[in-house]
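Retry 2 of 3 after timeout on previous attempt. Resubmitting structure tokens to design endpoint.
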């Protein structure tokens, strides 16, 4: 999803040459200028230099077009995101999470289509499910139970999406109002009444902010918990094995 220059002007289109791919590509171009919320069929027709009825021939309403854009965006996003591998589950999951966050933060349109927009097409939902299935499968192969693997990846996914969406909403508010701030910027810290908070925040910490420090801390907590579950499972298996051996020796 390469960003085009807003100043680039499309050549006038020949009659009858419009196709769905051109419409989707033009919609991404226009969304970079006006956002997903500002995208409309009449504006897109003007951008593509075609009558709006030509667009409705392929996409009957804006939601149909957004579904097609989401399918394309999600396909490219899945392709760009590293898989979780069982043989090195922690490092690959760490890389997976950081890449997901980076991709979404770096592409507001992708974030708006996949994370903020509530509706997904069946195809997009299937792509998301297959990606999650692979991650859970890898964690099970690493030694977690299905429930533990599901809960681990679900918590990780929620952590990534929550961090990205909070940042995106903050950015959108700033675009609409330069004076707008975030809730974590408005917390009143008084060294006399909240000395511990004052001490921590004097070092650059922000409570609840979707910044790198908080993201990495939450990420470490999730992975540490998964490591503890694996260690407990291994210890239980070792204990059971020793019990069998001791019973066999006693018999």
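Retry 2 succeeded. Sequence:
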């Amino acid at each position: 999803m390469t960003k085009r220059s807003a100043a680039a002007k499309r050549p006038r289109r020949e009659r009858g040459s419009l196709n769905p791919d051109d419409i989707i590509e033009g919609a991404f171009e226009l969304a970079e200028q006006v956002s997903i919320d500002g995208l409309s069929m009449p504006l897109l027709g003007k951008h593509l230099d075609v009558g709006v009825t030509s667009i409705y021939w392929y996409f009957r309403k804006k939601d149909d077009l957004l579904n097609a854009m989401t399918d394309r965006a999600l396909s490219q996003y899945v392709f760009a995101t590293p898989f979780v591998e069982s043989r090195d589950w922690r490092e690959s999951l760490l890389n997976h999470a950081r890449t997901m966050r980076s991709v979404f933060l770096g592409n507001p349109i992708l974030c708006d289509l996949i994370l903020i927009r509530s509706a997904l097409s069946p195809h997009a939902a299937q792509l998301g499910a297959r990606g999650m299935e692979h991650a859970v499968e890898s964690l099970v192969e690493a030694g977690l139970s299905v429930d533990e693997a599901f809960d681990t990846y679900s918590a990780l996914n929620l952590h990534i999406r929550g961090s990205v969406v909070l940042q995106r909403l903050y950015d959108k508010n700033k675009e609409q109002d330069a004076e707008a701030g975030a809730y974590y910027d408005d917390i009143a810290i008084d060294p006399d009444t909240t000395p511990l908070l004052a001490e921590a925040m004097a070092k650059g910490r922000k409570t609840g902010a979707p910044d790198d420090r908080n993201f990495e801390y939450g990420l470490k907590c999730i992975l540490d918990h998964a490591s503890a579950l694996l260690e407990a499972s291994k210890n239980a298996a070792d204990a059971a094995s020793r019990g069998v051996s001791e019973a066999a020796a006693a018999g």
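Attempt log closed. The chain has a mean pLDDT of 85.
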